[in-house]
Design a protein that fits this description.
Blueprint (H helix, E strand, L loop, with lengths): L1 H4 L4 H11 L4 E9 L2 E6 L2 E7 L1 H6 L11 E5 L7 E6 L5 E5 L7 E6 L3 E7 L6 H14 L2 E7 L7 H12 L4 E3 L13 H5 L8 E6 L5 H9 L24 E4 L5 E4 L17 H11 L1 H7 L16 H8 L4 H21 L1 H24 L1
Length: 368
């Protein structure tokens, strides 16, 4: 029964079956503190660390993340559990690690619902939200846009309409987690809890100060997470959540709180299709541009100077906003670059493409 509280089901039992003969036990990662972990096991909570063999052979993105199901060795309830294996993930929300390193950081694993939290104050940014929508499309989780601090917004309905224009079929919900709501919105629990049924896991992602920890407290009905107001000078959020943690909800669901994400650099999931699968995530987040591209005269249209380009015509008529088009191009370039970092064939193709472009520029310069 303890494992079922954390979302254990027949799928995970089948996935774990090959470890049973190795005298390993299943557990779920509830929290991560640097190199230490808190797990939920058959006998309740347990502290844990990663086995040396797993540390040696695993890439950074293959090490345990909050939400992962793992195979552990534990000799008694009081012993430190040793994480020997990480079960294959159903879903994952990840990003490129900060800095120049070409590596992936898994932010939330095995999440069913992804709440992308954006506050309706200084944090409101449609271009940033487009970036989250692309990352969500790659995650495999069901995305939901949560517009927090509705009580601070003079025209909530206008903001909802703006977000729906870019979110398309994704649900967009407006809430006021801190209270003081003058818009007569339903409570956080009434709005979000029905989306996290028993056995399901939701994760909250967004910038510092968007109100993620306040939302978690409202869902839990207690002040489990420390919160702080945004800075009065510039409306910027403060980091109050310092680690990722999974919480049990009263209805049997689970919610994962994350520290604020200052920079969400996109990362491809590294499938065999390389850049093509990465680009499909952008196409999902920009469906109207993808639909128009299918109407272009040339199948490989670059939407720059080709005749009968449906995308250029839509830009000229105002059907597509210039800012949204630039965001689309930027995110496609970023994901293609990320895919090239892990795919040598794609990296070679990109290198040849840039060589041809540079040669073309030099030829034009000589002619002039």
């Amino acid at each position: 029964m303890h494992l079922h509280m954390a979302g254990w089901n027949d799928f995970w039992a089948t996935s774990f079956s090959k470890f049973t003969a190795l005298d390993l036990r299943p557990a779920r990662v509830l929290a991560q503190h640097r190199h230490a972990y808190t797990l939920w096991t058959e006998s309740g909570e347990a502290d844990a660390e990663v086995a040396g063999a797993l540390l040696y052979r695993a890439a950074p993105d293959e090490l345990p993340a909050v939400g992962d199901w793992v195979a552990v060795r534990q000799y008694s309830a009081d012993d430190l559990a040793i994480i020997s294996e990480v079960l294959p993930r159903k879903t994952k929300f990840s990003r490129k690690v900060s800095g120049p390193a070409a590596a992936e950081q898994v932010i939330a694993a095995n999440v069913d619902v992804l709440f992308m939290v954006c506050s309706l104050d200084h944090d409101y940014n449609l271009r940033r939200l487009e970036r989250y929508l692309v990352a969500a499309a790659q995650s495999g989780a069901a995305p939901v846009v949560v517009l927090n601090k509705a009580d601070l917004c003079a025209d909530v309905h206008l903001r909802i309409d703006e977000v729906r224009q870019i979110a398309r079929d994704i649900p967009v919900l407006a809430i006021s987690a801190a209270g003081g709501d003058s818009s007569n919105l339903p409570s956080v629990a009434e709005t979000l809890l029905p989306l996290i049924p028993a056995g399901q896991t939701a994760a909250l992602v967004g910038s510092s100060g968007a109100g993620k920890s306040t939302i978690v407290n409202q869902l839990l009905g207690t002040a489990a997470q420390t919160t702080q107001p945004t800075r009065a000078a510039d409306g910027r959020g403060r980091h109050t959540t310092t680690h990722r943690e999974l919480f049990f909800l009263s209805n049997g669901g689970l919610v994962l709180d994350n520290p604020g994400i200052r920079e969400l650099q996109l990362w491809t999931q590294g499938s065999p299709s390389g850049g093509e699968s990465a680009q499909s995530a952008v196409d999902q987040a920009f469906p109207e541009i993808e639909a128009l591209a299918a109407e272009c005269l040339f199948r490989d249209c670059s939407h720059s100077a080709e005749p009968d380009c449906a995308v250029r015509q839509a830009l000229e008529s105002g059907e597509i906003e210039d800012a949204r088009w630039r965001s689309y191009q930027k995110l496609r370039r970023e994901l293609r670059h990320a895919a090239a970092q892990i795919d040598p064939n794609l990296r070679r193709t990109e290198k040849e493409r840039w060589k041809k472009l540079c040669k073309g520029v030099k030829r034009n310069q000589k002619r002039t």
